[in-house]
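Appendix C reproduces, verbatim, an entry submitted by the partner laboratory led by Prof. M.T., so that reviewers can inspect both the input and the predicted structure.
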Amino acid sequence: MMIRFEQICVIVVLLTGSVGSAADTVLCGVDVLRRDGFQQLAGQRIGLITNHTGLTGDGVSTVTLLHEAPNVSLTALFSPEHGFEGKLDISKIDDAADQSTGLKIFSLYGKTRRPTKQMLDNVDTIVFDIQDIGARFYTYISTMGEAMHAAAEHGKRFIVLDRPNPINGVDVAGPMLDAGEESFVGFHHLPVRHGMTIGELAQMFRSELKLDLKLDVIRCDGWKRDTLWDATGLVWVNPSPNMRCLTQALLYPGIGLIETTNISVGRGTDTPFEVIGATWIQPRQLAGALNARAIPGVTFVPIRFAPKSSKYADEACGGVNIVITNRKRFEPLTVGFEISTQLQKLYPHDWKGKDAMRLLGNRQTLNAIMAGQPTGDVQRIAAAGVNRFLARRQTFLLYD
């Protein structure tokens, strides 16, 4: 019997949690903006940073909404990594044109990653509306931070149309980003899993980066910090080409850590971030070692696969399928550390673990992994500074 992808998703939901009903539907910032008659943007020329995830709860694009809104003038569009339609997985994206409005789309993932003065000449207020995933190295928050710098420099107002953190706003896990390791995949001094919304992060960025900026956050209505995406009643839209469901978003903070090493994290397969592998991994050996660790909320199935693109394209890889069995007990960074320590233990001459530094962003944690220290020691090292972060972020939280 053939099982379709949609059926698999239903099975996963039944195993790991429930889906919210229509009665549970959260209003995102854009829905609140529309409900309030766009009064926050009245008389303003708007530069909108968005992509295909900028949608109302009933599926209207934020572009269309602002283009047609009374007493609002949409004058410029900006797109992040993966482009305006969220379909590109390339290193540089050119400017484009929006067919529906005739406006130019300035790419913030091309020649520049920060809006220039010329781009903002006909803009009074920059509006940001993009769905984030909740991991430090997911670059949409970096695009927001760079745009906030530009707004401060050129005297523009900045408004964030807030959206839920799909993997919840309660759970936080390190390591913290080392000073001096800031980059486009590490914009600010955050842990890997920060547990904040884009609006909350914007408030932190303005304060801690000392930006002279008028910032307004239009909050979500009805979202609670402990709520995962499938309890919001909102439609899932893939925020990037390889982020195709909530399960992958939950795995991403841990599995994404190792994708700059010589490991396939499933790009080029139907289930990115749910599988990992390499040509030199023995699948039963790795699965056995990981299952012997009895990691809460997860199990590992030995597999073989050949990615159609990306790392190890068209090569036979051995690896594991990572199956979340209990979302309440599952912690992605724990899984990422367990996988890393087992790769270093089993394949010390094959795995290029030092290359994880780009996304891990913490030298002490990497050194512990590469030295073969027990996972518990790695976790304790990775937790350094997280309590101070929790105290830092408290001032900026918008939701209970």
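The radius of gyration is 21 Å. Additional entries are available on request from the coordinating office.
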